[in-house]
UniProtKB/TrEMBL annotation:
Organism: Microbulbifer okhotskensis
Pfam families documented for this protein: DUF4303
Descriptive protein name: DUF4303 domain-containing protein
InterPro entries: DUF4303 (IPR025409)
Length: 172
C-alpha cells in the first residue's frame, strides 16, 4: 500500500487553505473576528477552517439567552470558544477554491482509506491510527504555516482574538 507523505498533505492543505482564507477575509472585511481555528478529523479527511466574528456570533448569543443561559456562560469557554458554535465553522467547504485545490488530495486519501479497509482488523487499526497521527501532524504544521504567513493579520481582530488547532477526537 502506497503511503501518503506528510509533505504532500501539508502542501495540499496549505495550498488549498491560503486562497480560501484570502477570499473569506475579503468577503467579510466589515466584521471583527475574535477567533480562527482549524479542526481536523483524519478518518474523514476533514480539515475545517473556522472563524467567528462578533457580528456572526450575535445570533448564537441571542439563541442561548432565549434558552435561559447567562451571558457569562455564553461568553465563556464552552460556547464562545467552541468552534462548532461558530457561523463560519467550515468556511472552506463552501469555497470553490478549496474544493478544486483539495479534491486531488482527497481522492488520494479516499483511495488510501479504501486500501486500509481491505486489511485484516489488526493491520487496519494500525494503518488507520498511523494515518490519523500523520493527518493531525500535517494539520498542526499547516496551522503554523498559516499563522506564520501572517494572513490572519488581514482580518479585523478583536482585542481577545485567539487562534487554535485541534483534532476532533482530542476535544470531543
Amino acid at each position: 500500500m502506497k503511503e501518503i507523505s506528510k509533505a504532500d498533505l501539508v502542501d495540499g492543505l496549505f495550498n488549498a487553505a491560503i486562497p480560501c482564507i484570502e477570499k473569506f477575509i475579503e468577503e467579510h472585511n466589515n466584521e471583527t473576528f475574535f477567533g480562527f481555528a482549524i479542526e481536523t478529523l483524519a478518518e474523514e479527511g476533514y480539515f475545517h477552517l473556522c472563524a467567528s466574528s462578533s457580528e456572526s456570533f450575535q445570533s448564537t448569543v441571542d439563541e442561548y439567552l432565549l434558552s435561559g443561559e447567562t451571558l457569562e456562560f455564553i461568553m465563556g469557554e464552552d460556547i464562545k470558544w467552541n468552534n462548532q458554535e461558530w457561523a463560519y465553522f467550515d468556511l472552506n467547504y463552501n469555497c470553490n477554491i478549496w474544493n478544486k485545490a483539495w479534491e486531488p488530495m482527497l481522492d488520494i486519501i479516499n483511495s488510501h482509506k479504501n486500501n486500509i479497509s481491505q486489511l485484516n482488523n489488526q493491520e487496519s487499526t494500525r494503518a488507520q491510527q498511523k494515518f490519523s497521527n500523520l493527518f493531525k501532524e500535517a494539520g498542526e504544521e499547516v496551522y503554523m504555516k498559516i499563522i506564520n504567513s501572517r494572513i490572519l493579520d488581514k482580518m479585523k481582530q478583536s482585542s481577545d482574538f485567539r487562534s487554535f488547532f485541534f483534532e476532533h477526537h482530542d476535544a470531543f
